[in-house]
Amino acid sequence: MTPRDPTDAQLAAQYEAFPYPRRDPRDEAKRLVVGSPSHLREVDHWVFGAARPAAQPLRALMAGGGSGDGTIMLAQQMASLGRPGRVTWLDRSAAARRVAQARAAARGLDNIAFEDGSLLDLPGSGLGPFDYIDCCGVLHHLPDPAEGLAALASVLAPGGGMGIMVYAPHGRTGVYMLQDALRLLAPAGDAPADRVEIAKRLWKQTPETAWLRKNPWIDDHIKGGDAGLYDLLLNPRDRAFSVPQLAALVAGAGLRIACLVEPLRYDPDSYLADPRLRARTAGLDPIARAALAEAICGNMGIHIAYLTRAADPAPVADWADDAAIPVLRELDGPTLARGLRPDGVLTVTFDGLRVPVPLPRLAAAFLARIDGRKSWGEITAAVIAGGASAEQAARDRTALAAAMQRMNRLLLAAP
């Protein structure tokens, strides 16, 4: 675990002083931190195309596991659903390990293995192979992100996939300006506690014209405690990736982007109703379309992506399969159905940006019956028994799946 360069040594010291994100193991009794990547439902759907049997043990790696959010989420979801397998936490921070282990103990989770080390040392480490690898918020801090992604790919099992998160440039407007300021006021050679104090003082004195003051989507320096402030404004190395830069990084490791979360957010037609503009967007390839959405929205501070090997068949969930079981991610079907507007438009919000999503006429009838147990065929038969024609039910089922899958809210369960 020898640091790769002086900046890497500073990063290692940072996460010992301020395990990230700030977490209190006592809070495990109150809530489970849920998000992307590595939500089990998302992994089943986007990485494995809802084709990998739930009974098959899942070998997962959390590379740069930090204080444990992704590790605890995935391990708890596996335990709650009776899914076999093990989650391996890997990080070089002893302080972060203590937090993550205490959180696991508070939940009584016994499906987690803790390993000390750097993801850069995975090749030849004897760890793996892994069916699923999470690398959330790590690649953008490495001396060479391409080396890091290649190291992860080296322990990825055949047919496996990854979930990653990297910073994005436009939504972080203002962050790098204050990082520059703090390099002058709180140089890396100062003690971490002194640097935090100076950063807090600077934030209080920062003029209203500072771009970070105008950026409502970045708040780790306000709500994340000292660890959040340090990670955002005092971090010795972070870089942001545009969509094309991320795509190039992924392709360089022999991987492909299976999904950008949420797909709807990366579709420029979600924001552009003008038919002449849409005629232009229609001629763009998927990465260019996503890059356009990123550029015109300006509020994407991170990119979350699920990856698979470029040489493997692309995972595609089969929505035409009557035996498939649809699941709503953190939504209750009947409640959502009752709350739909009369015009059938569902409004979703992405970091302050409201996007109207038209749903088909029978959306409420389908949503009210989605409970994570009934199959698509059973649900469709019930909708038809309720008075819909078979043709209309088939059309609306397809339209509903297309609309809500793009929101990352309606997925197919593992068989």
Plain-language structure description:
With 415 residues, this protein is α/β, with parallel strands linked by helices. 39% of the residues lie in helices and 17% in strands. The protein folds into two domains: 6-170 and 239-309, 3-Layer(aba) Sandwich (Rossmann fold), CATH 3.40.50.150; 326-412, no CATH class. Strand 4, helix 5 and strand 5 form a beta-alpha-beta unit. The mean pLDDT is 97. One of its GO terms (molecular function) is methyltransferase activity. It holds the Pfam family Methyltransf_12.
Summarize the structure.
The protein is an alpha/beta fold and 415 residues long. The protein is built from 16 helices and eleven strands.
Q: Tell me about the biggest sheet?
A: 7 strands, mixed
Helicity range: 25-40%
Rg from alpha-carbon coordinates: 22 Å
Instruction: Note the beta-strand portion.
Output: 15-25%
Average pLDDT number: 97
Coarse structural class: alpha/beta
Question: Judging from the principal axes of the Cα atoms, what is the shape?
Answer: globular
Low-confidence stretches: none
Tally the helices: what do you get?
16
Span of the ends, CA to CA? 40 Å
Q: Can you count the beta strands? A: 11
Domain Methyltransferase type: 63-160
Keywords: Methyltransferase, Transferase
Pfam family, one: Methyltransf_12
Protein name: Class I SAM-dependent methyltransferase
Q: What structural keywords apply?
A:
alpha/beta; Methyltransf_12; methyltransferase activity; 2 domains; globular; Rossmann fold; 7-stranded mixed sheet; SAM-dependent_MTases_sf; single chain; 11 strands; methyltransferase
